[in-house]
């Protein structure tokens, strides 16, 4: 059973940076696209960024293009999300999963951006 554990969130001022990590265990991910999703209070969970596990190609939501970078370390089964120039509207819980989501959701990691 695949388990996903996110970490790296926190409180940061607008314009600041954070790096999120997601450690995936219990499966092999070579055939998957791994993605980051976020859920703001009172809103549905939305796609943020994704990376093809084997090929490394990436895609981003328009709202984060040029500010966020998704990467992965295959040897550590870990997906990262480098978030720069954070905005208040980036606030929310961040989760990783395949894209589209096929695994159980982890607990997420909370990102709070103060304006």
Main attributes of the structure:
115 residues, mainly beta, six-stranded mixed beta sheet, four-stranded antiparallel beta sheet, globular
Explain this structure:
This protein is mainly β. It is 0% helix and 51% strand. A 6-stranded mixed β-sheet has the order 2-10-9-4-5-6, with no helix packed on it.
- Major sheet: arrangement of strands: 2-10-9-4-5-6
β-strand number: 10
Task: Write down the overall mean pLDDT.
Answer: 95
Q: Helix/strand-derived class?
A: mainly beta
Can you summarize the main beta sheet?
6 strands, mixed
Could you provide a short overview of the structure?
The protein is mostly beta strands. It is built from no helices and ten strands.
């Amino acid at each position: 059973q695949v388990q996903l554990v996110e970490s790296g969130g926190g409180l940061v001022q607008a314009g600041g940076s954070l790096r999120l990590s997601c450690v995936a265990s219990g499966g092999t991910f070579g055939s998957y696209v791994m993605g980051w999703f976020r859920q703001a209070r009172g809103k549905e969970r939305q796609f943020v960024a994704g990376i093809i596990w084997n090929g490394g190609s990436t895609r981003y939501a328009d709202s984060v293009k040029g500010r966020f970078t998704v990467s992965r370390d295959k040897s550590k089964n870990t997906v990262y999300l480098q978030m720069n120039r954070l905005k208040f509207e980036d606030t929310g819980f961040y989760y990783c999963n395949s894209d589209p989501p096929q695994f159980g959701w982890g607990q997420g990691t909370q990102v709070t951006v103060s304006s």
